[in-house]
Amino acid sequence: MARKTKEEAQLTRSLLLDAAERLFSERGVARTTLNDIASAAGVTRGAVYWHFQNKTDLIHALWDQAVLPLEASFEELLQTMPNDPLGRLRAKAITVLNEVVHNDRTRNFMSIVLLKCEYVEEAGGWREGYLTKRAECLTEITGDFKQAIELGQLTDSVDPQFAAVGLFSIIDGLCFHWLMNPSLFSMEKQAQKYIDTYFAGLASAG
C-alpha cells in the first residue's frame, strides 16, 4: 500500500508540474494562480501545497525538469572530450539551442523564464534562485574558457569571463528572439553558424 501511495504522490506531482508548465507558458507566471494549476491538474489546492509551497517552488522544479537532462549530457561531454574545452562549449551551446527547437519541455521552460516571468521584488525567492543558477552556469563556462586558454586553444589575450558572458548572451538572445518570433530566422538551420561565428571571432583575437 505504501508503494502505491508513493506512486500516486509522484503522479500528482507530475500532473501539477505539467499543468504549471502549460499555464505559465500560456498566461505568464503572474497571471497564473495555484488554484488555476490545481484545477488544470484535476487535484485540490491542498494537493498543490503538499508538494509545493508556492509558485517559486514550482518554477524551481520546472528548472530541474528541463535542465537536469541537459546537465547529464554535458557531463558525458566532459568524459568524452576532457581536453577539448572549446569543443565542449560549442557542443553545449548547439545542444541547448536545438533542444529549444525540438524539445517541448525545454522550449516551454525557456519561454517561461525569458518571456513569461516578471523579475520584480514580488518574484522573491524565484528571482534570487534563478540568478544563482545562472551565476553557476556562467562560472562553469568561464572555467571551460580558462582551460581553453591553458591548452592553447585560445590566446591569453582572451578574457575568459568576457568570453563566457558573450556566449551566454548569444544563447539567451537567440532563444529570446526565436521564441518571440520563430519566423525571424531558422534556429534549427542557423544555430550552429551563429555559435561557430562567435568562436571564430574569439580564435582570431590576438
Keywords, please?
206 residues, mainly alpha, Arc Repressor Mutant, subunit A, Tetracycline Repressor, domain 2, 2 domains, 9 helices, 0% strand, elongated
Give the SSE map.
Layout (H helix, E strand, L loop, with lengths): L1 H26 L6 H8 L3 H7 L3 H26 L4 H18 L1 H12 L9 H26 L9 H21 L6 H17 L3
Helix pairs in contact: 1-2, 1-6, 4-5, 4-7, 5-6, 5-7, 5-8, 5-9, 6-8, 7-8, 8-9
Short characterization:
The protein is an all-alpha fold and 206 residues long. It has 2 domains: 53 residues, Homeodomain-like (Arc Repressor Mutant, subunit A, Orthogonal Bundle); 150 residues, Orthogonal Bundle (Tetracycline Repressor, domain 2). 78% of the residues lie in helices and 0% in strands.
Judged by helices, strands and strand pairing, the structural class is mainly alpha
The CATH superfamily of the largest domain is identified as Tetracycline Repressor, domain 2
CATH architecture of the largest domain: Orthogonal Bundle
Main sheet summary: none
**Which oligomeric state applies?**
single chain
Distance between the termini: 67 Å
Instruction: Return Rg in Å.
Output: 19 Å
- Residue stretches low in confidence (pLDDT < 50, at least 5 long) are none
What percent of residues are in strands? under 5%
